[in-house]
Amino acid sequence: MKIGIVCYPTFGGSGVLATELGIALSDKGYEVHFITYEQPVRLTQGFHPNIYFHEVKVPTYPLFDFPPYETALASAMVNVIVNQQLDLLHLHYAIPHASAAYFARQILKKSGKDIPFITTLHGTDITLVGKDATYAPVVTFSINESDAITAVSENLKEETLRSFTIEKEIHVIPNFVDVKRFHQTDKNHFKQMLAPDGERILVHVSNFRTVKRVPDVVKIFAEVKKEIPAKLLMIGDGPDRQNVEELARSMGLYSDVRFLGKQEQISEILSISDLFLLPSQTESFGLSALEAMACSVPVISSNAGGLPEINVHGKTGFLSDVGDIASMANHAISILKDDETLLHFKKAAIAHARKFEKQHIIPQYEKLYEQVIADYKTNRKPCS
After folding, report:
1. CA distance 222 to 216
2. Most buried pick, 190, 310, 376, 382, via CB within 10 A?
3. 75 three-state secondary structure
4. Within a 10 A sphere around the Cβ of 162, how many other Cβ atoms?
5. pLDDT, tens digit, for every residue of 130-155?
6. pLDDT above 60 for 382
7. Secondary structure element (H or E) that encloses residue 340, with its range
8. Mean pLDDT of all residues in 65-77
9. Does the fold of domain 188-356 match that of domain 2-176+358-379?
10. Are 303 and 320 spatial neighbours (Cβ–Cβ below 8 Å)?
11. Beta pairing, strands 51-55 & 88-92
12. Where are the alpha helices (DSSP H) in 85-123?
């Protein structure tokens, strides 16, 4: 089977999941073609013989204040589908990938060629951007034109059905984790460098957008540090980073906080961490939390969105209301207070994460691919 995957090539959850899915499929013998504006970040780790990358070129002209990426993407889809004889397109993040795929489909029909496409909803394409009146009609239309729809959590499925008039079934296929990549490794020499006096290490990973409530991470850390010697590692970058750095300085915490920026080898950093903080306003799933759990790191998170579907309160960590810094800090302290308690939570975190191993999830996508292609061939109408 030849599969085209369209995604954002960034560190965000949708791009990471799409890339990991493509790698997993290629390892099983599928031919995978990524179509996006630059190489996905997680494709830089090693050579994959069954994976091809097609860069979407967006010409710039003085006429355009905003280059028309959607048009360039649709053209790229047409070229790849025709020249590589793809069997299926899998679109990650509805905007603008689903609408571009519909555009490409109409072009292909003129020449008697057509393939089915699946749209996977990841979160803010529904909960934030998609709800904007500017995009809502196109989002609704293009999702419904998809041959199949998936969502990464039950919560996201429910949110989509509340917000849009969806005419088709939404299949819930959760995000997954590659435990061969994300697992605890012996990096004690790194830990000793960062925490030479045996301090607990807390960590946060995000794109530093407002929805992640990154200032809350620093405030939680401040409360923890009053009770327990600790360090904080901040991984990622984004619009809120400068403000958060200034907050750490103003609170007198900057010497105990390290802003590491974007990192590709996140698993090595998670391996030396004791607790993961994710106080987001909303999370459709929380892939970063799952990857932390796979590295035996318990999680303190908000109870927003799909987070309760992966972070089990009182077992793999704790859940608190959005913005309840005191509760999150108290829960963090209760986990970090002694080695025995911390070890108990670490074991529970990795045990739960293994339920989301890729070998449990990839077959669900394979089954859906086969069903969609079979239905498409059965129901396809001759192109006029």
Report:
1. 10
2. 310
3. helix
4. 9
5. 566 777 888 889 899 999 999 999 99
6. no
7. helix 339-353
8. 88
9. yes
10. yes
11. unpaired
12. 94-109
CA atoms within 13 A on the CB side of 354: 9
- Provide the residue type at 370 as one letter: E
In degrees, rounded to 5, the angle at the alpha carbon of residue 368 between the alpha carbons of residues 378 and 34 is 105
DSSP assignments along 223-283, one per residue: HHHHHS-EEEEEE---TTHHHHHHHHHHTT-GGGEEEEES-S-HHHHHHT-SEEEE--S--
Q: Is the pLDDT of residue 45 over 70?
A: no
**In sequence order, what are the residues at sequence separation of 6 or more whose Cβ sits closer than 8 angstroms to the Cβ of residue 192?**
none
Phi, psi of 51 (to 5 degrees): -110, 135
DSSP state of 296: T
Q: How far apart are CA 279 and CA 357, in angstroms?
A: 24
Domain at 2-176+358-379, CATH homologous superfamily: Glycogen Phosphorylase B; (3.40.50.2000)
- Domain spans of the chain, in order of start: 2-176+358-379, 188-356
Provide CB contacts within 8 A for 314, sequence distance 6+.
Answer: none
Cα–Cα distance between 294 and 291 in angstroms, integer?
Answer: 5
Length of the chain: 384
End-to-end CA distance of the chain: 27
Residue-level pLDDT at 22? 94
Superfamily of domain 188-356: Glycogen Phosphorylase B; (3.40.50.2000)
Rounded Cα distance between 381 and 371, Å, is: 17
Token look-up 């965000």 returns 12
Which one-letter amino acid corresponds to residue 210?
Answer: T
316's CB contacts (< 8 A; 6+ apart) are: 293, 298, 299, 310, 345, 348, 349, 352, 353
Q: Say how many CA atoms lie within 13 Å of 173 toward its Cβ.
A: 25
Q: Are 43 and 53 in contact (CB under 8 A)?
A: yes
Mean pLDDT calculated for residue range 178-202: 86
| β-bridge partners, 119 | 91, 149
- Contact present, 230 and 202 (Cβ < 8 Å): yes
Q: In angstroms, what is the C-alpha Rg of the chain? A: 22
Strand partners, 3: 32, 88
Query: Among candidates 272, 269, 303, 307, which has minimal Cα distance to 289?
Result: 307
Amino acid at 330: N
CA distance 317 to 332: 8
